[in-house]
Every structure is written in structure tokens, then in C-alpha cells.
Amino acid sequence: MPERTESDSRKLLRRLRDTLATPAKGQERLDRITRLIAHSMGTQVCSIYLFRDSETLELCATEGLKAASVHQTRLKLGEGLVGRVARFGQPVNTGSAPAERGFRYMPETGEEIYSSFLGVPIQRVGEKLGVLVVQSREARQFSDDEVYGLEVVAMVLAEMAELGAFLGEGEAMARVHTRPVLFRGATGQEGSAEGRVWLHEPRVVVTNPVGDDPEKESARLAVAVAELREAVDRMLANALSTDADHLEVLETYRMFANSRGWMRRMEEDIARGLSAEAAVEKEQSSARARLEQASDPYLRDRLYDLDDLSNRLLRLLTGQGADTGAEMPENPVLVARNIGPAELLDYGRRLRGVVLEEGSVGSHAAIVARALAIPLVIHAQRITSEALNGDAILVDGDQGLVHLRPEETVAHAFRDKIAMQAEAQSSYASLRELPAVGTCGTHIALFMNAGLMADLPSLVGSGADGVGLFRTELQFLIRNQVPRRGELAAIYSRVMDAAGHRPVVFRTLDIGSDKVLPSMKPQDEPNPAMGWRAIRVGLDKPGILRMQVQALIRAAKGRPLTVMFPFIANRGEFLTARKILTDEVLREAAQGRTVPSQVEVGAMLETPSLAFAPQEFFDEVDFISIGGNDLKQFFFAADRENERVRRRYDTLDTSFLALLEQIIDRCARSDTPLSFCGEDAGRPIEAVTFAALGLRTLSMRPASIGPVKHLIRRVNLLDLKDVIDEARASGAESARAAVTGWLARQ
After folding, report:
1. SS3 258
2. Contact 447, 464 (CB under 8 A)
3. For the chain, which end, N or C, has fewer CB atoms within 10 Å of the first or last residue's CB respectively?
């Protein structure tokens, strides 16, 4: 069979556009398309398979196969040649389909008489919509030109599907942007919210996939690419030389923007009949499919760079973007692939919730979301491809679930849950001025965690006794360069002013792991959580640590100052860090500046090694705060960023409680104040268990103080300690069943 010429491709696309423009129901339109493609390609068969759900493909239209198989034949993702095309996003071209690896015979279709097979993905910027297939009786491979031509057709089908061209009969044709979808992610910040989707970077909709005048389309593309290159050059010229990571990203952008191969492929797409916008998206989708299969993480990361650059180019071509006049809804839930802390802070408390495709429980966005008390779900894969601005959305941060366009029964149940939570919080407000004292008379101090000035109003509203952890890294994370000492001193001073008579514990920079400063180049570490982070960075770069403690000393203005060093693993690290602080106090005094009236220096116990430090360490340190999140992940060797294992081990595991008791005992011998800081401190059952073991100070997010105080005031902690001891004596792996059973009887 002769190769299809460029004029043939353009002719097919024009006919396809005319067919799509003709009024018809979804099924009728699909049937017309398969007939048109089969005739134009000179094949006996053309079939369209669309996703019924994320794992199942359904035959939705065919010319040549048995009509009875339409909406009856289904394949799992990866099953058969069609499933293979869908899984990997790459064409399958063979002259002998039955001999091909993974072939599956579907007897109801009558396809056994067709030997040749060409399948291409119907996809749009990573969103897999289905598979387009042509088949013929003769045993031959389709030419490169035919493969390319069918890919172009599939691209147009994807764009028209985006515009709702195939709405109609058949479950698989219910467009993804109209049906309810449940996303199972992970908890970044607890809480529940109902609202409307606000996309951080709205997707560009291509309304004209077919171009009539290739010269005009090529000229439009050339102008837009020139503007893009100029914009990237301007960003590079304005970038600070100290911002190495930002410069590296921009250099990658410039490399892509000036790629001759990228430009040549888009011009070829236009010559085949695509519009400039569709040509950009086709190359973006093709590159995505290739890079998603790459084993090299560096290459996979380039996928995001290419996506961002392509989206910038599409906005230039279409005029779509943030400045098109779209208004944020009254109850916005931010949906994004990822977002930086500064951008999230710009939105502030206007947001009802945040949903991210990426992120982590310790990411910049999670830290800010906690500070703003905004429910956050992370790892909600593909939600940016599914959601549209204004879609109804429910965010369940407690369970890590997101309901997009929920059915009314789901929404009603969710609203009941939110109402019950609001009623409970209202009841806790009456406890605000009351102490957290068990029925046995034991007093527990409840502190709150903070990281922004915006947190401080919660100090009074929540009834917290003080700030048990003020995260100082946020002021570094939201800037592209290290903040000045004077800036930090002013911020820390305002924090102390806002706290009034209540104490504030400042934790020095806890960076590294998943918290990388924009002004620092990320380190390529196989396990960053156990690598160069927190105090290790501070001791290796003492200039930054000295600058920060100088800012804290000056911020105190003669008031008492409490400083805590993170991730201390042994006594030597603590002594070295404390000496840096002590030296700076002496230097400030020698220069005639006002120094704090009192300085308390503590350590976060986040590594099991510190629990076994010499007793001298417990004598020397002014106080210790157990960093529960890290201590638990290292104790159980369970990465808290890994959803497969982060919930596998129970905080009330008797072995973990034994470690806590050892720490409590060693601190008691040295009369060293001890607190527990972390997510578990804010969970009422865990909190009363810690209190029963002997922990007298807990630090948590402000919203948790009410529920924790409520339960403590109902419990005899001495009796609960007996319950825990009995559970351990019985050989129980966890004390949870015994504790919850006893609490239920109170």
C-alpha cells in the first residue's frame, strides 16, 4: 500500500473536523469517525477503545469488527495489544498480531481474520483516554508515515473528547470531567472541607485542533516560541547568582526552548494538519509517555520542566491563563500538582483546603497548610487532569480522601461529618480557660506548634499554655535567598510579643530531607531523611547557624530565650551547637548589646541513639522534646513518606512505649523537663497514654488541644497506667485495644 502523503493526512483531518462538527449523539459520532478513518487509511477495521475506569478499556465503536461486541468487549490495562498501548502510551505496529507478545484473542469481535495491527494511544498531556486501532487482513507493518498520521488523528480525538464531543450512550463515554471521582491520597494535614475547585495552574483547552493554513500556524508558533525564549532569557538575567537551584531549572528551560528537534517536530505536526496549539500538546504528550518510562530519576524530573515550558507556550498561543478574568470561588479548594510555600502563603486563609498530586507529609506545602490549619491531601494522583475550575469537591484530610463532583448522598454524609466536627470544636471552646488536669489531679501542660505569625492568634483561642515548637525554617523556605539577620530578628521579636507571657520554644533550622532551601542546591541522597539535615547542616555550615542564633538573641530584647536544636544524635553534637549559641551570647554582651535575661538550651530527641546517650547528656541539657514523627519512623525503620509502611506500626506498640518510658525515666533522674511533640501528641488516645506513662508536656497543632484536654479531664491517669502495664504483662503487642476498651467503660 502506498505511504500516506501530507495532503492525505490534512484531508483526513479536515474530514474528521467536519464529522465532529456535524450534530450527532456521541455513539453516532464515534461510528462515523471509525468509518471515516478506516476508509481513509485503506484498512478493513478501525476501532476506538475508551477507558471505562482507570483500569478498564471498553470497545466503544468499530468499523469492521462485529457490531455486537461494542460496549461488551473490555480489556484490563496492559491486557492484550490494546491494553499494552494504553499502559505504556506507545504505538504497537505489527504485521502478525497473533504472534505478538501479549496478544489476546477476543472471539466475540471476529478479529481472527485480521493479521495487521496498529494501535496508538488517545491521550492528552498524560491523561490516558483510550486507544485508536486499525487492522487489515494482509500481513504487513504499517509505514512510519501511517503511524504518524494515526497519532495525529488520535491527538485530535483526544482534544475533541476534552470538549465533550463523545458524550452520549455507553458508560465508557461518560467524560471524565462530568462524573464523580474518588481520589485516594495521603493525609498531609487533618481536617475536612467542602468547596469548589480552584486550579493553581488551570489547564489550557485547545478548541481548534485542526489547522487550515499550515503557513499561518507555523508563523503563530514561531512568534510564540520567540516570546517564550525571550521570557526565559529575562528570567535568567533576573535570577540571583546565589540561587543555584533556580538557575539550574531556568537553564533547563532555555535548553528545551532552544531545542531544534522540539521545534522541528512541532512544525512537522502542523504540516500534517494540526493547529499550532495541538502540535505543542502532541509533542508534550509524546515526551511525557517517553519520560514516564525512564528509570533515571533525573530524566523523570525533566518531565515537569517540559510540562511547565509547554504550558507556558500554550498560554502564549491561546491567551488562556491566570489573567483571563476567572474569579476564585467563595469557598476555594486549591488543586495543584505541587506548590511552593510562598505561593501557598499568598492564598492564605482564603482556602478551605488543598489537594496536591505530589508533596509529602513534611513538605513545604504541608508545613504551611498546618500553620494555616487548612486540610491537605497529598498524592492525589492525576487530579489536575480530572478537575476543572468550579467543580464541587470534598476534602477528607483525616482519611486522605478527595471526592470530586460527589454524588448528593456522599455530599450529605460529608456535611453531617463537618457539622459534627464543628459542634465538637464549639464544645471544646468552653474548656479553653480550664487546665488539662486528670481526675487523679495530674496536670498536663498543652502547648501548640507554630511556624508563622498567622499561627499566633490560635495561642489564645486554643487555650494553649505556650508554643512548644516554633518552626524557624519557613522564613527561609519562602525566599529565594537566605534572609537577613535583621529581618529574622524582627520576625522572632514579633512572635515573642504576640505570645506575651506565654513561653515560646524556637527550634533552629530543620532543613534537609524533604525541606530544601531555595537558596541551597538539593543533595542527591538515597535516603535524605537519614542524611544531611537539621543540626548536621547547621554544624557543617556554622555561618547560617550563628546568624540565626544572633537573630534570636537580639529578638529577645532582654527577655528569656528558649532555643532547641533539632535531630541531635549524640552528646557531642549538642555540646558543639550549644557552644555556638553561648559564644554568640557572650559576643553580643561584649559589644554592649542587650542579651536575654535567661537562656534555656534544649534538644529534640528524634533518633533512638540519643535515648542511650550518657547520663551526663541528660544532666547538661536544659530540656528535651521528643520528636515523635522522626523517632517513630527510625524506631520501626518505617519511612513516614512511604504509604505502604507509614501506618503499618502502632504508636501504642508496647516496645515503643517501653522506649518512651526509658526516656522519661532518664530525664526524671536528671530532673530534666521533657515534652512530646508531633502528630501523635494531638491524637487524644495517644495523648492520654503518653500522659499516663509520665509525660507532663505535650505539643500539638492548635485544633487538637481541645479534644486532648477534653479526654485528659475525664481520665484517671494512674488507673490508665495500670491498664497499660497489664497489657504489657500479658504479652500484648500493642496497648491500644486495652486502652480504648478501658476508655469506653469510663
Report:
1. coil
2. yes
3. C
The pLDDT, as a whole number, for residue 460 is 81
Q: Where are the alpha helices (DSSP H) in 374-477?
A: 383-386, 408-429, 457-461, 474-477
**Residues ≥6 apart with Cβ < 8 Å to 13:** 152, 153, 156, 210, 272, 273, 274
Question: 287 or 164, which is more confident?
Answer: 287
Name the phi and psi angles at 503, rounded to 5. -75, 150
Q: Which of 46, 60, 364, 403 is catalytic?
A: 364
Class of domain 214-318: mainly alpha
Q: In what order do the strands lie in the sheet with 74-76?
A: 74-76, 56-63, 45-53, 127-136, 116-124, 92-94
Closest CA to 712 of 376, 463, 392, 457: 463
Q: How far apart are CA 470 and CA 564, in angstroms?
A: 10
Residue ranges, comma separated, of all CATH 3.20.20.60 domains in the chain are: 430-744
Question: CATH 3.30.450.40 region(s) of the chain?
Answer: 6-173
677 is catalytic: yes
Among 130, 57, 124, which residue's Cα sits nearest to residue 385? Answer: 124
- Residue 345: pLDDT above 70? yes
Sorted by sequence, the CB contacts under 8 Å of residue 40 that are 6+ apart come out as 8, 11, 12, 15
Pairing of strands 127-136, 116-124: antiparallel
In sequence order, the 6+-apart residues with CB closer than 8 A to the CB of 579 are: none
Q: Which CATH superfamily is domain 181-202+326-421 in?
A: Phosphohistidine domain (3.50.30.10)
pLDDT for 294 beyond 70: no
Look up cell 462538527; give the residue.
21
What φ, ψ does residue 322 adopt, rounded to 5°? -70, -20
Residue limits of CATH 3.50.30.10 in the chain: 181-202+326-421
CA gap 132, 48 in Å, rounded: 5
Whether the predicted pLDDT of 169 surpasses 70: no
Question: By three-state DSSP, how is residue 454 classified?
Answer: helix
For residue 401, list its beta bridge partners: 184, 396
Vertex 660: Cα angle to 656 and 662 (nearest 5): 115
Place of cell 508558533: 221
Provide the CATH topology of domain 6-173.
Beta-Lactamase (3.30.450)
Q: Residue 610's closest CA among 570, 659, 572, 564?
A: 570
Q: Which helix (H) or strand (E) holds 634?
A: helix 628-635
pTM exceeds 0.85: no
3-class secondary structure per residue, 162-173: HCCCCCCCCHHH
CATH no., domain 430-744:
3.20.20.60
Residues carrying CATH 1.10.274.10, the chain: 214-318
pLDDT > 90 in the chain, percent: 43
Respond yes or no: is residue 364 known to be catalytic.
Answer: yes
Which residue out of 46, 60, 667, 677 is catalytically annotated?
677
**Alpha helix positions (H), 239-275:** 244-257, 260-272
If residue 196 lies in a helix (H) or strand (E), which one and from where to where? Answer: strand 192-199
Q: Mean pLDDT across the stretch 660-683?
A: 96
Contact call for residues 410 and 403 (beta carbons, < 8 A): yes
| Nearest in space to 269 (alpha carbons), one of 204, 208, 214 | 214
Q: In residues, how long is the chain?
A: 746
Q: Using an 8 Å Cβ cutoff, are 188 and 382 in contact? A: no
pLDDT value for 243: 44
Rounded to an integer, what distance in angstroms lies between the CA atom of residue 136 and that of residue 134? Answer: 7
Give how far Cα 433 sits from Cα of 429, 463, 705, Å.
Answer: 9, 6, 12
